[in-house]
Structures are given as C-alpha cells and as structure tokens.
Design goal:
This protein is mostly beta strands and 128 residues long. It contains no helices and 11 strands. A hairpin with a 4-residue loop joins strand 7 and strand 8.
Amino acid sequence: QVQLVESGGGLVRPGGSLRLSCAASGRTFSDRHMGWFRQAPGKERAFVAAISWSGDYTYYADSVKGRFTISRDDTKNTLYLQLSSLRPEDTAVYYCATRRPGPLGLYNAGRNREYEYWGQGTQVTVSS
C-alpha cells in the first residue's frame, strides 16, 4: 500500500524557517515527479512547488518563489520543502503528492488532477 507521510510542520514566527519532509513507502518514487500543495482555512488547495523525477527541474508558485526550495533524496524515498522568510499568509496545511506518469512542465505542474497519491498533510502556522 502506497503511503506518503508529511512531517516537520509547526508554529514559527514571521521571517522564520521550517523544513518539511514527506516519507514515501509502499513503492519507490524515484521515477515519478512530485509536488507540494497547501490549503489555508477557507481556501482551495493550491500548488506550491514541483520537482522532476531526476531533480533537475523545479517549479514554484509565484507566491513562494525565492523563499521555498523543493528537493528530493531518492536514497531515502523522501521529498523535502525548505520554507524560509515565512509570512503569516503561508499558514496552511501542506501536502505532498506524487504525479501520475507523464511529463512535468510549468504548464501543468499545478494541476491537482495530475497527482496520484497524497499525504495527510502537516500544519504550518506563521504567527508572532
């Protein structure tokens, strides 16, 4: 059974940093593109970042570009999201997901329906 488990969320002050992890089990995802999404209270789930299976290509939402970094370690079957310069508007539940087989580009990185497996999420709260 495929399982994605996020961790690393918490309460942080504005300007602070966090590192989220997403551990995959049940199969290897070294051949799959992966991504992070987030959902703030009262809002729809939104794209944050995506990374190609090789790690060579990354894509970010404009709202997080330059502040967040997505990476992967396939030896550990783990996806990461480094969050820096956090703002109150970054408060949300963060989800990792694996994409269905197929290409990944800027044109489709944020399409929810193209992601196959999802984690349960980890809460990030940015507040002073």
